[in-house]
């Protein structure tokens, strides 16, 4: 059980025994009502401190004997000052004015409130279903999230499998192309060699053609003075006959230089 004092002014507040006018201990929330300073009693503790502990037999004995002290801190009712009740007069001076405190200042007493922080068994039992429901809701949310994540992971896995299969096919095709290119390398080398030989032959033929043209130009025979239409349609036959009759040559072909 924990008690906390709040709002007390130094030297002006005091705990009472915790009994009402009839002498019965209070039950319920403990609190101190505002009042005036009692000159016959002092505060048992410093201001702002917290009193912690469990109310034991010693406190109950103090309450039964009517002694001041920690017996005034109990779980029950309104705690009032009874020091002035015993003297049958109000606290303070005969004129009804508050007396000066230890510091010499005229001060009115500030209310002191005691908060009881312990929860009852019924409250705990009432809170248990709510906590269990919240916990079940959290578990359900976690299960839904896990299920959604598993579905997303499955979709991603399927996509990765398809990409892997396509990549495998492309890799196989690339290997086939590389093999074909490798097999074609000897053929390409042979074709390149043959192309070189053909180029050389073409050059030789061009040289021979030029030489033949030059030889023909050097060995041309011009016949001057023949009337038009004398050779008729075959000029070679005409020339053979002409040379055979006039130059005594058998064939014209022996005259040309090849």
What's this entry about, in short?
The protein has 258 residues and is mostly helical. A two-stranded antiparallel sheet has the order 1-3. The chain has a two-stranded parallel ribbon with strand order 2-4.
3D architecture notes:
With 258 residues, the chain is mostly helical. Helices cover 48% and strands 4% of the residues. The strands form two sheets. A two-stranded antiparallel ribbon has the order 1-3. The longest helix is centred in the middle third of the chain and has 98 residues, at 121-218. 10% of the residues are buried. Residues 1-57, 68-101 and 103-107 have low confidence and may be disordered.
Fraction of residues in H or I helices: 40-55%
Main pleated-sheet profile: 2 strands, antiparallel
Strand order of the largest sheet: 1-3
Mean pLDDT: 65
Tell me the number of helical segments per DSSP (H or I, 4 or more residues long).
4
Distance between the termini: 140 Å
Region (Disordered): 1-128
Biased composition (Basic and acidic residues): 57-67
Helices and strands in order:
Layout: E1 2-4, E2 31-32, E3 50-52, H1 57-65, E4 78-79, H2 83-87, H3 121-218, H4 235-246
Parallel strand pairs: 2-4
Antiparallel strand pairs: 1-3
Jot down its keywords.
two-stranded antiparallel ribbon, 258 residues, rod-shaped, disordered N terminus, mainly alpha, two-stranded parallel sheet, single chain, 4 helices
